[in-house]
Each structure stands twice: as structure tokens, then as C-alpha cells.
Predict the structure.
Amino acid sequence: MKKLSLIICSLALLFQANARTMEQSLNNQIYLKTPGNFSQTHQLRKGSDGALYSTTGQLPLIINQQTREENGTLYVTTTLEAQQDVWFNLQNSFALNGQMHNDCLFYMPGFWYRKNLRSPKEAPSFHTNDSWRVREDRLSVPLTGIFNEKDGNYHTVVRIDDFKTDALNSLKYGEAILTGETSIGYTGFENENGIATLVFGFPTHEAPRSYVRKLTLDPEVMMFQHLAPGETKVLKWEIKAGQAKDFSEFVEDVWNYSYDKFAPQVIEEMMSAEKAKEILSNFFVESYVNTDKLNYFSGVHMRTDDCASTGSVEVGFVGRVLLNAFNALEYGEANGRADLVEKANAVFDSYLQHGFTPNGFFREFIDYTHNVEPTELSIRRQSEGVFAIMHYLGYERKNKRRHPEWENKMKHILDAILKLQNEDGSFPRKFDDSYAIVDVSGGSTPSATLPLVMAYTYFKDKKYLDAAKSTGSYLEKELISKSDYFSSTLDANCEDKEASLYAATATYYLALATKGAERKHYADLTKKAGYFALSWYYMWDVPFAKGQMLGDVDFKSRGWGNVSVENNHIDVFIFEFGDVIEWLATEYNEPRFSQFAEVIRTSMLQLMPVGNSMYDIGKVGYYPEVVQHTNWDYGKNGKGFYNDIFAPGWTVASLWELLSPKRAENYLTTNYRR
């Protein structure tokens, strides 16, 4: 009780201090532009009547700013009323007095974590600059947070709006007048003479660089919104002060606050899981390829407009051919689809005969069209292949069918994988068939935890559980305790969603496989990592301009996850994380988790290509991958569209797992008798 009282007193003193200083820390300026001319900057001062006045001359608009401080939160409402045609960009800054920039870590959900130092200099990071402002639709919540590592104080600013409109950008950099009305502003942080400062405003202003495509930084861009005479614009922000013991608790606090603020709702009248699987199963039919070596579902590197098979097959990552085979088998037998059962068994049989390297690893990727097969292997693809086969073996054994050859193959590959495990429990990210290490990074380690726990359950061999627990120790020490989730995805080196999602799923598996205090410990780790994974998922619906396909079909971004710092688009990567969230909701009596899980389930089915709603996809059930929701492209098309190349192999597998609840719990509680 004494400790609790001290914490309450500390928070009270913090809020009192901020109550005295928050409004005084707020500064404003406005940029005004007339067509064909460079903008003019006006510093603003607040009068006793709440109006903002230029310190340098008369303004062509009336600006009124109302502020209210309550319980450590400053509510800011700014109203602009044009007296003549005006093109403006309003900037606000909130200096955190006494908070040194070098003592702080920074957070923009789904885009910026700590200092983004895991990301290369070609992407937004401290490698390039220590001050950044970005357009709001890059973020899963239009919010910036600053956390002081030394004293635990934090501040956030969040934009409050209906977010209904957007306008096309006339230029990618420099000063540009928007082609119409937008709801999108900007948010970020700045080093002002050593003091950490929140910066935010309207409309978009990205600096010092704008991120336009993978590893491509453009110059600064500032947009200007037009107001006609007599027209008004109302802008609202909330600046909140708080305290947390570490960055992890800070992210948890901000996620809960954001969830309560935005209260994302399920997408009504969405199709059932049964209907969704029926549509997705067409992928198993049309993507199937039979060769004299491997039979497979072609699901990578294909065009969205025709979805033609490309001759490429991939075990894990974006191909997921073996997991798709298992899903096709299970679904085919449950629904009397002999065609799917035949195709699935053909895939498994061909991989048993032709799917392994000389040393017994999976052949990860083969391009039959160009006769290319890289020699580089990865712990992630290998693990995802074993994961799929362990599901297959478990399913077959339940149906009184045994596959001793597959069992021996899995024991061999698991033992080969264990040879790669480091003393700290980690696995190298990439290697070759002779065990030579290509990439020492441990970011992909949690992908190995899942099949190791499954192998322990299936083979009753404790060495697999011991190895899995060793990965858990590494995850706790190097990722979860440091709030540093990185490089789980194979096509980027940066902070990414999949690292935290895989970490949460890995510790979830370990919790399911253990008891008592050990189980509770893994559950707590799952919760910590889970908040970081959740932070990548959108709580709001970003607006689109007319003519942008996603806006034209009324797409809602809530429940979709951003991908990584390098790859700034949203997708349906979820797999078993829906189960993890539901499990956490029960374990910790946290209804937000289960509510948001349902938002994700309904929202991720929005772009199902079927019938008269194909959403610019060439074939039924080939679910889209690169959904470009902000001013960024993966190479083609830009906001409101997809990239022209996609990989439905993993999107179908991800949604299928989302629609197949409690797979891990069912697997790990089954007694696979000899």
C-alpha cells in the first residue's frame, strides 16, 4: 500500500506540474501560400480573447484557439475562418520542459518505435535525423508519444476528427496546394535546442524527408488546404501526460488509451467463416500446379490483374505452400471435396520425395520458370515448413493414418535446426545447407519456437521443449525486456510487426505447454509482446480521395496491420494472433482484446474477391496482399490501390488460420499415442 501511495502521489505531482505548464508550452505558427508564390510564415501569439494573432502583420483569416486542462490532459480546439481565399498549413509545437531529447524514446504506432535504429538510413530513422513529422495515415493511430527513459514521464498528442476525406497530392515534395479537401494532418517529434518537443498540425507536412517507397526518401513536402471566404475548419488535439516504468508499459498505456478513444467497431454484415473459406478454397483449385518433381500451389510473385501461376513455389514466408496443402486437406475431407484432398496429398507426397536438400532441410524456394533455386536458407521458412507438417502429422494421426517417413524427415530436420541454435537460445536468420551462417541476426528466432513445442507434444521428446524454452529465454532477454522487435520478416531489416507478433505467439505456445508459475511467466511475456503486435493494427479508418479504388469501395482500414518501417503498407498478416488475443483476454480479463479480435476478423474479410466484388483482383479467392493506404507505394500505383505484384499464398493461409480458432490449443492438448 505504501508503494501504491507513493506512485499515486508521484502521478498527482506530475499532473499538477503539467497543469501549471501545459498551456504555456503550446506554440503555434501558420504558413500561408498564394498560388505561384512561396509560402510566408507567421508566428502566432494568443490574445486574452482566445484568438491567435500574427506577430508580423494582419492575417487573411480569423484563428481562435480554445484550451482546457483536466487531469493531465490538454484539450486543444483551433478554429480557422477565412476572410478571403486562403491556402494554409497550421503548425503546433508542445515543448516538454525539462525533458531532454537525448533522454527520450519516441513512438508513432505502426511506424516508429524507440529511435528506429534497427531500420537503415534509407528509411525514417535516427540514422538520418533526430526529428521527424509524418502524415497521420502512416500510423495505426494518429498519435505521437515521447517517453523519457530516465524519469518515466511521457506525453502523447492525438488528433481527433471524423477523418472522412482526402485529396490527391499534386506534388511529391516541396510546397503543394491540395486538389481538394482532406482530413489528414501530420504528427511527430522534434529536437528544439535539446528539448524534446511534440509537433503536430494540418494539413500534411512531412519533414525532414518524405518516405515514398521502399528505401526511398524524398525531400520534405508541405501541403496547403484551401479555405474560401467565410469557410471554417475546426481542428482538435489532445495532449496527455503520464508515467510508466519502462517503454513497454508506456506502449501498453498508450494502446489502452487509444483503444478507448477510438473505440473501433466491427464491420457489420460481414460474411461467415464458412463462406469465407468456401471462397478462399478456389485458390487451392486454380493455383495448383503439377510437375514431374514438386506439386504445389503457386502463390508468389504473380500479377493482381490475371493471377496467373508464375512457376515459383515457396515453403514458408509469402508462399506457405505446405500450410495451404494442410488447409486444403482438412477442408476437403470435412466438406466432401475429393479434388482438394487429391491435390493436397499430391503436394505432400511430392515434397516427401523431392522437397529436401542433401542435408535434409526444406528446399525453400524454387523458380521453375527461370530454373533458379537460391542456396540461402532461413530459420523462418524452415520453421514454417515444419509447423505445417506437424499439423499434417497430427491431423493424420487423429484420423488413424501414420506417416513414418514424414516423421523421420521431421526428426531429422528438427535435429538439423537444433545444430544451429546458439548458446543464448537464438537462431541465425539465414544460413546455407552446410550450416554456414549467412545472417547472424536473431530476429527470426520466435518462428522456431512454434514447431519445437509442437514436436515435443507429438514426439514426446523433451529436448524439443528444452530448445523451445531456450528460445523463450532469448526472446525475454533480447526482444521483450528491451522492447526491441526486429527483422522477423525476410525482405527487410527493421522494426516490424511480425517480430512482435511471432514473439507473442511463441510465448503463447510456451504458456500452453507449461504449468504453474512457469506458465504465468510465459503468459506475462505474451501480454507484453502482444501489446507491441497490437500497436501495428489500425484503430481508425484512413480516408481516401475520389478515384482511389479503396475509397471508392468504402474500404475501412480498422483492424488491418501495418507491415514494417521499410514496407509502409497494410496487410492481413494475422495467422494465429487472433487466438493469442482471445487467450490473453481470458487470462487477464481484458475485454479490449477480445473486442479488437472481432474487429480484426470482420475487417480483414472486406476485400474478398468474389462475384461482382472482385476489388481489382483477377481470380476469386486470391486475397490481396500489398494494400497501399498512405502516400507510399511498393513500386506501382500508390495510395488507394495495390502493388501490381502480390503473393496470395500467404494471405490465404493467414486468413484461413484466423478463421480456424484454437488450432494451437487443440494440438497441444492432444495425446498423440504411439
The chain has two domains: 2-262, 273-668. Residues 2-262 form a domain with the Beta-galactosidase; Chain A, domain 5 fold (CATH 2.70.98). Confidence is low (pLDDT under 50) at residues 1-20. The radius of gyration is 26 Å.
